[in-house]
Write a structure and sequence with these properties.
By secondary structure, the protein is an alpha+beta fold. The chain folds into 3 domains: about 1-120, Rossmann fold; about 135-290, Tumour Suppressor Smad4, CATH 2.60.200; about 310-475, 3-Layer(aba) Sandwich (Aminopeptidase). It has helices at about 1-5, 20-25, 25-35, 50-55, 70-85, 100-105, 110-120, 150, 155-160, 165-175, 235-245, 300-305, 315-320, 345-355, 410-425, 435-440; strands at about 10-15, 40-45, 65-70, 90-95, 125-130, 135, 140-145, 180-185, 190-200, 225-230, 255-260, 260-265, 270-275, 275-280, 285-295, 330-335, 335-340, 365-375, 380-390, 395-400, 430-435, 445, 470-475. The strands form 3 sheets. Strands 5, 6, 7, 8, 9, 10, 11, 12, 13, 14 and 15 form an 11-stranded antiparallel beta sheet that branches. Strands 16-17-18-19-20-21-23-22 form an 8-stranded mixed beta sheet, with helices on both faces. Strands 2-1-3-4 form a 4-stranded parallel beta sheet, sandwiched between helices. It starts with a helix and ends with a strand.
Length: about 475
């Protein structure tokens, strides 16, 4: 009986966002919902007043959902109004804004018909909502010299050039960067910093930068804080490239951490931005409403989330490693043979040919205990790994996979062999230095602070470390 009553859908839309995709298809959208037995009530965005009025007057028991069409700012207005009015309906997002950073997390379609398919489906994901002082946000709060880029970007330029308009405007703001003193207070620690810019993230993308918070999870009950410290002009381009590739969180000019509560203080008047709109005045108090919102998603998105290893779960990560023979160092995967080798020179040459800045001059004594090579039917190496012991700790002294066979689980198989061998020898953990940390994170490795890791990785003393290369010290717990 309850389902019979839920035949209404509220549509909240911004007619000015994006390039007119939504407006041009409004009749088609209404038709699709009507064909499925739903009465669609459109509400045109008007700085939140219209949506608040509609929500205050609605009986949510009669509604199936709320559909929000627009960018992050439109979603922000809707979610704030929903919380204020006590509405807990699930929302479907039509990402028709310029950057659509919040929607990017869910990999929502860009085709209108496919957006309607997701909205008419039955799959939802619980997501967190962040709070800044008395306002709520769904994706990002930003502070510092660059936050007014989106506010100063001409709307017509945004609609014409899309995300590129943000980049153009951002480039003009670099000369105006100002070093701002700031105090960050969390339940765990207090930081006193000087920053150019910082973000407090719920999602992973902001301003069109897809990996500005690459490790964020939108339903973990945590905020991801990323602060960019003062840097020389010569460091800005390498930093920009690091941000584009998601390699910046462990850069020496970046402070990055997670927390569920945060207070920001500064003696200066700091510009702020929340989901693309003008934000609150300092001081700022942040918190998280865990799993406050339900968002309609494609069922594949749920499958992908469920398949991710949980943070810090080494056992879940190790399950992902493909093994053809659990305890054997030999075997085949996809026509590639995995075998032990004693040819250290051949393996080291392969490492260097595949991008490892490798040296045999270690800062401490190294005892390589097992080396593996992966070879194709032509005898050429497709991959290799060296397992060693330094200062009593097990380390991966080198691992590389030929780019022609990436995606064939060669790296996962090599890791599994190293883990199995280490466990048999009684190891409690394995360390490595990762140039591609996301690969290892997928298999249960976690980043550790340099001061918490043994001082035995020579690449951390390389002059390019933190400049053109941003490796992370990682550890996999085997206990």
């Amino acid at each position: 009986m309850a389902e019979e009553r839920r035949k209404k859908i509220l549509l909240f839309y911004n007619p000015y966002s994006g390039n007119g995709l939504f407006k041009n298809n409004l009749d088609l959208i209404i038709e699709r919902f009507q064909e499925n037995g739903y009465q669609l009530t459109p509400v045109r965005a008007a700085k939140g007043m219209a949506i608040e009025k509609a929500l205050n007057e609605m009986n949510q028991d009669n509604y199936r959902q709320i559909v929000v069409a627009g960018g992050d700012g439109t979603i922000n207005i809707c979610v704030n109004a929903m919380i204020k009015c006590g509405i807990d309906l699930p929302i479907a997002i039509f990402p028709t804004g310029t950057a659509n950073d919040f929607a990017y997390y869910f990999d929502l379609p860009s085709d209108i018909s496919e957006m309607v398919d997701v909205a008419l489906g039955d799959t939802t994901m619980d997501v967190d909502v962040a709070k800044c002082n008395d306002k709520y946000f769904i994706n990002v709060a930003a502070m510092g010299s660059l936050v007014d880029v989106s506010q100063k970007t001409d709307p017509n330029l945004k609609n014409t050039l899309g995300v590129f308009a943000y980049y153009l405007k951002g480039a003009t703001e670099l000369v105006k960067l100002h070093n701002i003193p700031i105090k960050l207070i969390t339940p765990e620690k207090t930081y006193n910093e000087k920053m150019y810019f910082m973000v407090v993230m719920n999602g992973i993308s902001a301003g069109g930068f897809k990996k500005i918070s690459p490790h964020s999870e939108i339903n973990d009950g945590k905020l991801d804080v990323i602060l960019f410290r003062k840097m020389a002009v010569s460091e800005m381009l390498p930093m920009l490239m690091a941000v584009l590739h998601g390699n910046h969180p462990k850069h020496r000019k970046v402070l990055s951490f997670q927390t569920d509560k945060l207070r920001l203080e500064s003696p200066e008047d700091v510009s702020t931005d929340v989901d693309g709109e003008h934000g609150e005045k300092f001081p700022l108090e942040f918190s998280v409403l865990h799993s406050k919102l339900k968002v309609f998603v494609d069922p594949k998105t749920i499958e992908q989330e469920d398949s991710k290893p949980k943070k810090g779960s080494a056992s879940e990560g190790r399950k992902q490693m493909t093994m053809t023979s659990k305890d054997s160092a030999q075997g085949f995967v996809g026509g590639i043979e995995f075998r032990t080798t004693n040819d250290e020179r051949k393996l080291d040459r392969f490492f260097m040919e595949n991008g490892l800045e490798y040296s045999d001059e270690h800062p401490v004594d190294t005892d390589r205990i097992v080396m593996w090579e992966a070879a194709g039917s032509d005898g050429l190496l497709a991959g290799g790994l060296a397992l060693a012991v330094r200062q009593g700790e097990y380390i991966i002294d080198g691992i590389a996979v030929d780019e022609k066979v990436r995606g064939m689980n060669v790296g996962a198989k090599l890791l599994a062999l190293a883990v199995s061998e280490s466990e048999k020898r009684g190891a409690k953990r394995i360390y490595l230095v990762a140039k591609a940390p996301e690969f290892f994170r997928h298999y249960g490795f976690v980043t550790v602070a340099r001061e918490d890791a043994p001082e035995f990785f020579e690449c951390l003393n390389c002059p390019q470390c933190g400049v053109s290369c941003h490796p992370e010290v990682m550890c996999l717990s085997l206990s």
